[in-house]
Design a protein that fits this description.
10 strands, single chain, 8-stranded mixed barrel, 13 helices, binds ligand C2E, binds calcium ion, alpha/beta
Length: 301
């Protein structure tokens, strides 16, 4: 990320703009150079407003959690739900999760956000049938913080849920930043009986060197492989097949994310992937809609 030095600009302003360019590069153009442009100013101002509002937010009230079904092709039923955070700010309205999670990370609020999401997800999951799991996203900063991990352990213990029903999703970038520290945190969660899922697999560096060195129970293929099918079916199908093989060899579950159409579903099914998540099987829904979703499924079976 780069920014041009402009007359009269403070060092801080230039640093912020270069940092924002870097953020855009990571988001939209991985591995490429991005130079800060004048039209990015509004986005930068928005981010400043999110950060400001988050610092003073009443998180347990403003953060809610929605749940997206994860479908098991082997049983033909929902096997679990991924918890996805939503922020409704009284001043800013609904803020896109990608943006507010990044803002929470930068402002140091993320550990508290994680705490709220874990707590609300466990309360919801406790009302579901006992064979239905819940997947909760962790930020890399959670894995770097022994305090955040200790808080998560306490929340799981005190909720009384069977820890085997709880999966924590982490991303590859999380593992790359400080491998040993991340590994230790994941060992702690796994030792309690919780499961670990590697999210957005294939979107980043996908270093196979580290993958067997931490506790891992599931790999989630990045949505880009489904999207890629619109351009090149055979490449996409080859990649799904390869990831499915990798999972089999590692002895971990495989879930394909972002499946929206029947065509995509049959490709994923043919590659031997067992779990699917995507709009085809359900959009993220409030906790209150889950009983109805499971009931509809039972009736249809
Ligand atoms: P993610 O963990 O990869 O979550 C999947 C995202 O893909 C969700 O977006 C989900 O709504 C969307 N999605 C699922 N199926 C489909 C589909 O078939 N088609 C399309 N186009 N999209 C689909 P969402 O809820 O906007 O979340 C975005 C990201 O925000 C998440 O990506 C995750 O990285 C982050 N996030 C959300 N909640 C939390 C949280 O509680 N903690 C942390 N640390 N990050 C979170
Ligand atoms: Ca996830
Ligand atoms: Ca994902």
């Amino acid at each position: 990320g780069f920014a041009h030095l402009q007359d009269g600009q403070t060092i801080r302003a230039i640093y912020e703009r270069a940092d924002h360019a870097l953020y855009r590069a990571k988001r939209d153009a991985r591995g490429e150079v991005v130079i800060f442009l004048a039209e990015y100013e509004t986005e930068l101002t928005d981010i400043g407003r999110y950060e400001q509002a988050l610092r003073t937010a009443d998180l347990p009230r403003e953060i809610t959690v929605v749940f997206q079904p994860q479908h098991d092709l082997m049983t033909g039923r929902t096997s679990g739900f991924e918890a996805l955070a939503r922020w409704q700010s009284p001043t800013l309205g609904h803020v896109n999760p990608g943006q507010f999670i990044a803002a929470a990370e930068r402002t140091g609020v993320i550990e508290r956000v994680t705490g709220v999401v874990v707590q609300k997800s466990l309360v919801a999951a406790l009302s579901w049938p006992s064979d239905i799991s819940v997947s909760i996203n962790l930020s890399s900063l959670d894995l770097m913080s022994s305090r955040s991990i200790a808080n998560i352990v306490t929340l799981v213990r005190e909720s009384g849920i069977d820890p085997g029903r709880v999966m924590f999703e982490i991303t590859e970038t999380t593992m790359m930043s400080d491998f040993e520290c991340a590994r230790k945190s994941l060992e702690t969660l796994a030792a309690m009986g919780c499961r670990i899922g590697l999210d957005d697999f294939g979107s980043g560096y996908s270093s196979f060197a580290y993958i067997h060195r931490f506790p891992l129970h599931r790999i989630k293929t990045d949505r880009c492989f489904v999207t890629m099918r619109n351009e090149d079916e055979s490449v996409s199908d080859t990649i799904f097949g390869a990831i499915a093989d990798l999972c089999r060899n590692l002895g971990v579950e495989c879930l394909a994310e972002g499946v929206e159409t029947e065509g995509e579903l049959s490709a994923v099914r043919n590659s031997g992937i067992r779990f699917i998540q995507g709009y085809l099987f359900g959009r993220p829904m409030p906790a209150s809609a889950i009983a109805g979703h499971l009931e509809d499924q039972r009736k249809a079976a």
